[in-house]
């Protein structure tokens, strides 16, 4: 497939890579640093995606071997899935946040999400009917396939405030936990360009969930703080991983904050009179029709992230009832 590639800012190229799932495209960003080349995110490790990436690089006159720097915004399959191959072929300096590396290790070494006794306990206490579902069904289709081929350990960890000089450019790292614990965005201060990964998507709200073994007890609080944080930066062009490029990151950040406020209010309304567990609240908010188990899990743990945030902020309290953690509005 001939690659679609757009120069969105002088020397900054958006490359559209195919995904075998929704969203069906991921945008990765190639930066010409004049003598050096950087790539932010990699796509999934499928033959189509890799061929498309190679074709795109060919259009600007380089190959994978010419890449000098590879940054993963986060560990997810569509963002970091091809990093091992790119690293192997280019020996590019590969950077990822430490929390993301921990996720990579878990995915590569552990089985389905509820396989460990601690995870099982976590699922049960939040009302998730784990025994109704075969464990294999609880993992995404790509897990255990070659589509996820991440670098197991980056050359260096990304940290908040890092400034990475490369060629004639400087890439600034802003740590934006929420969608995943070590999610980072890349800021080009001089160019006023912000590469946002999944943190600030123009059309969809990224999933924010509380999972067993999460390094943060409050991922939604983190996500909302990260929305406030990016607003401090002066940006003219926002480059998202899915959807069209846009301009007003502050406006979009506020919309996302509003969305979660509304969602939380909806959930607190459900637990006004009767305390309920995260799974039961999720079924009321997201609907209880048949859907892939993976989506039911996402809905449950996104709901849990909202309920825990409400507890931390003093708008709800939690207690134990019949072996389950239940939440109620204060
Ligand atoms: Zn993601």
Rounded to the nearest angstrom, the radius of gyration is 20 Å
- What sequence of helices (H) and strands (E) makes up the elements? EEEEHEHHEHHEEEEEHEHHHEE
| Envelope shape | globular
What separation lies between the terminal Cα atoms? 56 Å
- Coarse structural class: alpha/beta
The CATH top-level class label: Alpha Beta
Biggest sheet record: 7 strands, mixed
* Structure annotation, total helices: 9
Share of residues in strands: 15-25%
Which spans of ≥5 residues are poorly predicted at pLDDT below 50? none
Domain count = 1
CATH names the topology as Metallo-beta-lactamase, Chain A
Question: What is the name of the CATH superfamily?
Answer: Ribonuclease Z/Hydroxyacylglutathione hydrolase-like
């Amino acid at each position: 497939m001939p690659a679609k590639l757009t120069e969105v800012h002088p020397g900054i190229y958006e490359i559209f890579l195919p995904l075998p799932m929704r969203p069906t495209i991921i945008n990765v960003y190639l930066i010409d640093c004049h003598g050096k080349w950087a790539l932010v995110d990699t796509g999934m490790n499928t033959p189509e995606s890799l061929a498309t990436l190679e074709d795109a690089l060919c259009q600007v006159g380089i190959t994978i071997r010419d890449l000098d720097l590879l940054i993963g915004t986060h560990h997810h399959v569509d963002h970091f899935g091809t990093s091992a191959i790119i690293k192997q072929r280019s020996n590019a300096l590969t950077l990822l946040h430490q929390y993301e590396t921990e996720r990579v290790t878990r995915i590569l070494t552990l089985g389905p999400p509820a396989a460990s006794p601690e995870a099982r306990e976590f699922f049960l206490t939040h009302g998730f009917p784990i025994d109704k579902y075969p464990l294999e069904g609880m993992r995404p289709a790509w897990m255990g396939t070659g589509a996820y081929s991440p670098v197991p350990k980056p050359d260096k960890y990304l940290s908040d405030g890092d400034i990475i000089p490369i060629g004639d450019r400087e890439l600034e790292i802003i740590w934006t936990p929420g969608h995943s614990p070590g999610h980072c965005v890349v800021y080009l201060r001089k160019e006023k360009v912000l590469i946002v990964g999944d943190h600030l998507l123009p059309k969809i709200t990224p999933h924010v969930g509380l999972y067993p073994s999460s390094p943060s007890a409050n991922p939604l609080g983190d996500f909302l703080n990260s929305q406030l944080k990016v607003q401090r930066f002066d940006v003219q062009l926002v480059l998202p991983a899915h959807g069209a490029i846009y301009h007003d990151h502050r406006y979009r950040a506020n919309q996302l904050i509003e969305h979660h406020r509304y969602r939380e209010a909806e959930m607190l309304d459900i637990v006004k009179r009767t305390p309920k567990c995260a799974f039961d609240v999720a079924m009321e908010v997201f609907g209880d029709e048949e859907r892939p188990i993976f989506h039911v899990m996402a809905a449950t743990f996104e709901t849990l992230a909202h309920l825990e945030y409400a507890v931390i902020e003093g708008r709800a309290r939690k207690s134990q009832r019949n072996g389950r953690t239940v939440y109620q509005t204060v």
